[in-house]
Design a protein that fits this description.
Layout lengths: L4 H21 L1 E2 L4 E2 L2 E3 L9 E3 H16 L7 H13 L12 E5 L5 E6 L1 H18 L2 H17 L17 E2 L1 H17 L2 H18 E2 L4 E2 L2 E2 L13 E2 L1 H18 L4 H15 L11 E2 L8 E3 H18 L3 H15 L13 E3 L8 E3 L1 H18 L1
Antiparallel strand pairs: 1-2, 3-15, 4-5, 5-6, 7-10, 8-9, 11-12, 13-14
Helix pairs in contact: 1-11, 1-12, 2-3, 2-4, 2-12, 3-4, 4-5, 4-6, 6-7, 6-8, 7-8, 8-9, 8-10, 9-10, 10-11, 10-12
Amino acid sequence: MKNYASLLHFKSYFIEIVLPTWISSAFDDVTGQFMEGLQIDGSADPSGIVRTRTAARVVYVFAHATALGVAPQGSLQKAERAFANLSATSRIGTQTQGFPRSISYRTGAVVDSERDLYDHACVLLALTWLAQATGKATYRNQIDDTITAMDDMLTAPHGGWAEDSLGTIPRRQNPHMHCFESFLALAEAYAAPAHIARASELYGLFRSRFFDEATNTLREYFGPAWEIGDIYGSGRIEPGHMAEWVWLIGRYVKWSGRDLSSLTAKILDNTLSVGRQAGTPFLIDETSVDGIPTKQSRRLWPQAELIKAYITQARLTGNSDYLEHAEQLTAALLETYLAHTPRGTWRDCFDLNGRSIATSIPASSLYHLWTVVCELIQLDRR
């Protein structure tokens, strides 16, 4: 990776500056929990409320960083403490399984008690890496318990799971994509046939329901039987998720036994066709199937997913042009989203005129940036 200065700089910057900033500034030492994010000036979020998905993702980041030997000292202890406190809320009232959507970490009270598929996908990912970072059997047991809870609480017809314990419509591909991510992580960690089978089922759902062959786009919103229609908002496309599927399918190749590079190339090409803002290397947050912006913004996380898609396609095809694209996008990221901010943080959102419109520094973006670093670490080790 010596010829890719921006990629190298981003990796070292994240490990040396970003991780230490977030383990110190975004962890509440009194209550033992990670925050939803930081205020725009880099100070602590005063709300005291955190979503399960956010807390679980930050736990994941520091557990994975520990396993790879790049975490700041004391990170794993804080991650374990945060997850223990999150787990303490996972059995409330008359419901006996699953994690609530959000909690007040200052009081220990549940803020939103509904069980949500997205949250459980993030919990699974956190548990997978806690188990690997610590070697503790208790986390392996919690993985099994969480999968059982998902199957019991969120069962739904026509494949996949329900959106949440309310059976909310529209159904979305996004939580299923993150379940795919978590079962891939489990397969990579343990090579258990059950986990590989789950990942394969979710890939099948992608091919049969989520990916629209007629338009080469990823549909986001569906009816109860995975049907598309204007009533469900099915015409709205998120290019960042298309890029994210390129990354995940690239990981699934190992388990599929097939060359899927032509599929990922098709997805990536159309990601850029419908989603890249003209005159920039950046993806727009949301467009129509025809590439007309339906949101006048571009957040940080889709750019991180596009970098990963480029790196994935370079690995699958051996074409170094994709690494050049990743290098150019990372250079632009360093000059915009990661510039003129409090130390170790970011400007999370710009409008399409290039003006920062971020009002906070969300911790959720830490996860997206970290997964880029993971790809760069793998590149270094090849």
